[in-house]
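Acetyltransferase (GNAT) family protein, Halogranum rubrum. Tokens?
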Amino acid sequence: MNVRPYSATDAEGLWELKRGFELGIGEGTGDEGKGPKYEAKLTDDYRERWLAWVDDCVAENDDCVTVAVDDDGSVVGYAFVLPASLAFVWDAAVLNEVFVAPDYRGTGVADELMAAALDAARDMDLPLDRMVLDVDRENDRAQAFYDRYGFEHWGEMVARDL
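Tokens:
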């Protein structure tokens, strides 16, 4: 396994994992409409815009997106820490996403990605020395993972349709 900074050649693999992340958001959490809402947004336009945003973030900080690549060259996991220019949203480093392909869960890949994400955040000039993330309270696997790294509940996000 090779854990390294993202490059443009990883775009297709990263996108496939992003789709898995988005579709997984609706699995087993929330009401019946949650999954279809996330699936409906995954259009070609969304893909192009999201990958362009990733490129912009990486242009600002080449360590903000880390990928795990298997021996066959497939991207099997990623961690995405928002660049420091966006730290003022929460006055902290923001762990935007961590995702590992199902076949690689429980292998230590997520731990390597988290270590890279924490290193990237430590290198940032932040208003406060902390990392925040949004995790569904019903996602027990993610909760256990973040608990192992010392994350604690800090406030709660609420949302409404526009």
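Residues 44-60 form the longest helix (17 residues).
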